[in-house]
Each structure stands twice: as C-alpha cells, then as structure tokens.
Amino acid sequence: AQTVTQSQPEMSVQEAETVTLSCTYDTSESDYYLFWYKQPPSRQMILVIRQEAYKQQNATENRFSVNFQKAAKSFSLKISDSQLGDAAMYFCAYLNDMRFGAGTRLTVKP
Amino acid sequence: DGGITQSPKYLFRKEGQNVTLSCEQNLNHDAMYWYRQDPGQGLRLIYYSQIVNDFQKGDIAEGYSVSREKKESFPLTVTSAQKNPTAFYLCASSIDLTAYEQYFGPGTRLTVT
Known about the structure:
heterodimer; A: mainly beta; 12 strands; globular; B: mainly beta; seven-stranded mixed beta sheet; four-stranded antiparallel beta sheet; 11 strands
C-alpha cells in the first residue's frame, strides 16, 4: 500500500518567520498529484496547494510554496511570513490512492 | 453557493444503535468519499463512490455501509458492528476520480456511549 509520512507531529514558528513542514510518500506511479490541506480549529479541511508530478516547477500560492523532489519522493510545504491564522493541522495528501499523512500541528507564536 | 453539507455537526448515540450521517453536495461532482479522523491518525478512507449506484470499500469499511442513489447524496451508516464508532467523520467530493482534488464538508462528530 502507498504511504504518506509526515515525520513532524508538531512544529512551532514565530510570527513573520518562515517554517517548513516535511512530507514523504511512496508510489510506483509516474503521474500523480500531491496536496497540502490545512485544518484549523473549526476542523474544516481547506486546500492549501497542489503539485502535479509531471511539472518540474514547484507550486506556489502567495505565502505558501512547495519543494517537490520527485526522485526522493519528498513534498515539503514552506510557509513564509507566518501569520497567527496559519496555526492549524496540516495534512499532506496523495489522493491517487486517497491517502493522507498523520498531520503536523503548527503553532504560531506572536 | 456551491459546496458540501454534512449534518448534523454533532451526533450522539447509544451503543448498539445504527446511525446515518448525511452528506450532500451541489458541486455537480461525480465522485464522493467518506473519511474517518481520529487523533494522531490523519484521515482514513471508509468508502468512495465514483458514480451513482456504484461504491467501493476503502481501508476501514468494516462496520459501515453507504448508498449512492443520487449524484448529490452519499449517506454513511455506522452500524452496531463498528467496534469503535466515536470519531470525526468527513465527507468529500471531486469532479471525478481522476481529478483527485477533493473538496470537504464541515464534518460530523459522532459520539457513541
């Protein structure tokens, strides 16, 4: 079975600083999509960013960007200029198989 | 507004009772999914459906059942056979199975005592 691993159960960042959340995955496919979802205390799952595996360019969405290393099967999320509203659980997802990582709880300190 | 609705937000049941969780979408999506979320375990797939009258088991289907009689609706029944039903349940949909990007409802917290 394909797996998605988030090795950091908790992370903390100072407001306005940058933080990187890690994710590795396992797949034998060559074409796939990867996603980062945010789950704030309301528990609503919000799509943050997506990456198509065939694209070499890393995806960016405003303050959110990814570092996609296909050969290493690594898909990290970088949050720049962290804001208090970024505090949430973050899930990495390989949705070809409908699989999610266990999540990383991000705390933002004022 | 287009979106996914789940009701109710909180649900309480006695052990031994079946309970049905509602999920409705007006996004005109073909594919729908049910996930279970427990603390520290991320989301685990219970069932998914790629089209009306068709659905497939996910990783943890035992003790659950679903139906897909309408494109918009994908209700989940938690049966008395589910050994540990207390959890947060999330419904999601996508354009189809190949579109992969999933949109989520607000979830239902089920507590069984």
